[in-house]
Amino acid sequence: MFVILVNYIKPIEMVDQYLVEHRDFLEKGYQQNYFVVSGPRNPRNGGVIISQLKDRGQLENILKQDPFWVNGIGEYEIIEFNPVKFHKDFEKYS
Q1: How far apart are CA 41 and CA 89, in angstroms?
Q2: Is 29 left (phi over 0), alpha (psi -120 to 50) or beta?
Q3: Closest by alpha carbon to 38, among 28, 23, 53?
Q4: Per-residue pLDDT tens for 2-50?
Q5: What are the φ and ψ backbone dihedral angles of 28, each rounded to 5 degrees?
Q6: Is residue 88 very low, low, confident or very high in pLDDT (cuts 50, 70, 90)?
Q7: Who's near 57: CB < 8 A, 6+ residues apart?
Q8: pTM of the predicted protein model
Q9: Which of 8, 3, 23 minimizes the C-alpha distance to 72?
Q10: What DSSP state is assigned to residue 84?
Q11: Reduced to 3 states, what is the DSSP secondary structure of residue 80?
C-alpha cells in the first residue's frame, strides 16, 4: 500500500488549468482499483493519494500518466507501508 504526497511546484493558477484532467486521471484509477482515496491538502499546496497497489513500479508507471506529472505541476513522494490494522469494511474496497 502507498501514500502519495503531491507537492505543487507551479502557481495555483497553473494547477487549476490541469485540475479537470487530473481528476479524470484519478477517476480512471478508481475504476481500475488503483486508488482508495485522494484529495487536496490543506492548505492547498498539493494533494494526497492512497493506493492499495502492491507493486511500486506499477504505481510509478500509472502516476507518470497523471497530467500533473506530465506537465510538471507537482513533485511526487511515494511512501510505501504495510497496513497491519484496518477498518473491518476496508476489504470492500480491496
Answers
A1: 25
A2: alpha
A3: 23
A4: 999 999 999 999 999 999 999 999 999 999 999 999 999 999 999 999 9
A5: -60, -40
A6: confident
A7: none
A8: 0.90
A9: 8
A10: -
A11: strand
